[in-house]
Design brief:
The protein is of the alpha/beta class. The chain contains 22 helices and 15 strands. The strands form 4 sheets. Strands 1-6-5-2-3-4 form a 6-stranded mixed β-sheet, sandwiched between helices.
Length: about 425
Amino acid sequence: MAKNFIEELRWRGMLHDAMPNTEEYLMEQMRSAYVGFDPTADSLHIGNLVPIMLLAHYQRAGHKPFALVGGATGMIGDPSGKSAERNLLDEKTLRHNQEAIKSQLSRFLDFESEVPNAAVLVNNYDWMKDFSFLDFIRDVGKHITVNYMMAKDSVKNRISSESSEGMSFTEFTYQLVQGYDFLHLYRSHECTLQMGGSDQWGNITTGTELIRRIAGGKGYALTCPLITKSDGSKFGKSEGGNVWLDAKRTSPYKFYQYWLNTSDEDAEKYIKIFTFLTEGEIKTLVDEHKEAPHLRVLQKRLADEVTVIVHSKEDLDNAIKASAILFGKSTSADLKDLDEATFLDVFDGVPQAEVGKEEISNGLDIIGALAEKTGFLKSNGEARRALKENSISVNKEKVAEGYSITEHDLINDQFVLLQRGKKNYFVIRVV
């Protein structure tokens, strides 16, 4: 029968807590489990990758995964780990977000094939939208005491004296709505396990309680650890905010760079969590990395694997090529292959100056381009000295005094890359 799903999570460092007997229960036969996703944006971000990987491993172990898009709960907001309420969405936006999320999940889960354990996407808005408030408090609310709900950490933390915000009734009822989802999936899809991050334990067990009290059945709960970075900063955030799975929100180049810049300690942890490499393959990589940490074998393999799963092999190749532009030996042809978004990503933070198109059409003398037109170098004298030292490149190719920048040098019809020595870059933007 099924592979041992819990054992897989254990060695990968992906198991935080599970109800007693969950492991034995899953070894008996194919079981259905679900994870909830918040549809408040039309893309998931890498903070969602752990629960996505839970479902992917679950399906690979022979079980049936359900991805629940929280259309109804997205309309009220989950208090777990949040200090403020979130914005509420209309139905059209929710449906659009749901489709976008399904397309991202389908890179990890098999929704299409005819196998018994094909993944299923459900939206709790579909069963909550016609459930009246009176019916809900009569059929669901009466089974759970306020004392039970108040004992949950997600509630206690928000109504404690430290929280200035307090907690609205809407958010207080969230655990009942999430608990009802579990009951609904239990009844309609024989879904007996809910999985999520460790901050979801309280909400998940409210669901198992409803299954016991209303349906006389047994539900199981399993959580994974919340991912942290060894330096204490938040996983899944870069300087620009969330690292998204959607290429339009976070380019494949920036996505690749995020994983490549992982510390040694984190890379060893992340490669188990975010890739499908086997225990043996990972052990070999870890040993190889320890012998020569400066080669960053773990980081490179981690970045390669995750970029291919989330984006594609072609996106990975482009990201590697773009990375080599800053740090490796690349040519003006490589630069001209970059699309505008990737070019701007690669040279993000590099100083820029604007030059009029007519100046380029007439040919912009290299000394003017280095000094008075851009301020890249302080003076014409410094520009001449740098040219004599052969330390100036235009689009990665060395130039000498007397060189003129023309339309032929433009990247994407609008950029020219100046460089002094190895590390000093400057971008001319032609307007």
